[in-house]
Amino acid sequence: GRDLICIQSMDGMLMLFEQESYAFGRFLPGFLLPGPLTYSSRTDSFITVSSCRQVESYKYQVLAFATDADERQETEQQKLSSGKRLAVDWVLNIGEQALDICVVSFNQAVSSVFVLGERNFFCLKDNGQIRFMKKLDYSPSCFIPYCSVKEGTINTLIGNHSKMLNVYQDVTLKWATQLPHVPVSVKVANLQDLKGVIVTLSDDGHLQCSYLGTDPSLFQAPTVDSREINYEEFDTEMKELQKIIKEATKTEDILPKSEKHRDLIVTAEVSPDLDAQSQAIDSEVKAEAVPSVTVKITIQSRVTAQKPILAVCVQAPLAVTCDQFVFDDLEPDSSETVVLSVFLKRNCSPSELEGNCLVSYNIPTDLNPEGILKVAQCNFRLPLRLICFPAQPSKAANHKLTIDTNKPPVSFVTIFPDFVDPSEDDQANVLGFQFLTGSKTTLLASKTSQRYRIQSDQLEDLWLITKELTLRLEEHFKKQNCKDFACTFSGSIPLQEYFELIDQHFELRLNAEKFQELLSERAVQFRAIERRLLTRFKDKTPAPLQHLDTLLEGTFREVIALADAAEENQANVFQAFTKLKSATHLVIMLISLWQKLSPDQVAILEATFLPLAEDTPELGWEETVDAAVSYLLRTCLSKSSKEQALTLSSQLCVPKDTNRLKKNITLFCDRLAKGGRLSLSTESATQEAAVMPG
């Protein structure tokens, strides 16, 4: 019939009161910070979680007969001899700080001690043994065990910092619900006629009573009056409603009206001459002088354009002096102009001499004041003089190509005025190009036949000169109103030389993987030696290092050397991929001239052989192109329905070698030579299942 009160202080003292009278005080051993404390009436003991992250149980009887808190000045010897030392009843190490402890005992369930940790939820027996535990994948804030409807189990409500309340039956999650706040305390109560009300308290003092369920529907459908239906009135009403709906769904206020003239126009003008003073910054090219060319970009706006941002892109190894410009809002009929320079940054020839300007801007509307995002873009072509200069032609070369035309040969003085000195007559039919990277390419025009020959020591160097030749010939004959000009190629496709470039690129990719593995191994070794050394240094009586410091220094040097080698290999991979792209462009062009392919078929070729703008360790050129070529061989270029029935693997991974890819490319060219036509519209059943890379 008495009330007993136990108070835990910040210094680890338990003060016990009987009614209003102070009974005694005891200090808990090994105390640092107070933890949750509860009393178990079944075992007459106090249960707490100490700073050692273990659950400790102290019998009330042991507390009562232990040394009093006021007598702590006794020496350790006196305490041992007196026999009143405070002893723990049982200990369980849970390895984490506890948030709360609760002792429950229901009729149908065994008496249990519940401990809520920072990451786990424990249920213990009276003697400290674990009945069960549950690992939580969230940060809990409070909990309360309550009676379960199922015999032998206990339900628990656990709140967390994600504003969720989870209902568990022992370790099984039965329900999860969202709360409007983070609960710091939760209880289950019966209020009036409503049983099982969940009472939660937030950290800012809001008390909420809620229940798991749905509100009953109080709506009752009214009785329908039986009357005759007037269909004419219904038709009239339906037409009026449809008219209202049509007016409401008009998008003219949401989206701007589509007009014949664009709201914003971006144009790029490339200077016909190179910069008098080069603007190249941090170029890796080893040439004496790295030229640059000025590009003038103009933005003209017919409407109000908010937050316009201009991005200028050129493919590496080319670079721009500034690739992004942010403008203030443009007023109607206003314009902005920026000037930048393009130059060769890395020490290899580019695969394309083209750039792209892209402007993103917002146009405000009545319903959307922030505006609707729109994009305008334009392309520009860079001059050949940016990456090469006139040089003495070379007679001998490893790789030669012959392009046939249906018109008499044109003098190079006419189509290459920027490379030819008019005073030298011998340059009318032969021309030399020296790339900034050091390689040479020679261009020859036949005096008797309608042919042009391009020759170089490197296959990839043929591409840009061949492309420039065809473009300038087309422009020349277009100016003369000649519409039937055409280029053809009757030689053999240089597949073997192309395959050598593929093998070089693939070998460098494999080297990159090897360097990655070696770096991982050395890093693991470095960390292991570091741990050993730290253990030795932390030891109060340090043992000899046994040359661990020498081993650490040697491993560190290996890691640095491997990282440098991996970085150098990465630069080589980039150069090899750029060369491969140039050679691929050349092969596509030769196939299209050889087979007289239409623009749509050339687009399919480019999507097949040039699916990636850049190589990545996860997805490389070889496996992507192999999948694309395999798809074409099994669909539009298949010889039988048996080939079409073969399924393609949808997973792309780095192949062991390039044999299959080279075999498929050779087969691809053979099928085209035998009359195969490129097309994506096929009635093959496998088209739906196969994935077209790129």
Automatic annotation (TrEMBL):
Domain PTHB1 N-terminal: from-to ranges: 1-216
Enumerate the spans annotated as PTHB1 hairpin domain.
Answer: 492-595
Which superkingdom is the protein from? Eukaryota
Q: How is this protein annotated for GO cellular component?
A: BBSome; membrane
Q: Which residues form the PTHB1 platform domain?
A: 383-490
Q: Where is the PTHB1 C-terminal helix bundle domain?
A: 597-672
Quick one: a GO biological-process term for this protein? cilium assembly
Q: Where is the PTHB1 GAE domain?
A: 288-380
**Which segments of the protein form a coiled coil according to its record?**
none
Protein's UniProt name: Protein PTHB1
Write the lineage as a comma-separated list. Answer: Eukaryota, Metazoa, Chordata, Craniata, Vertebrata
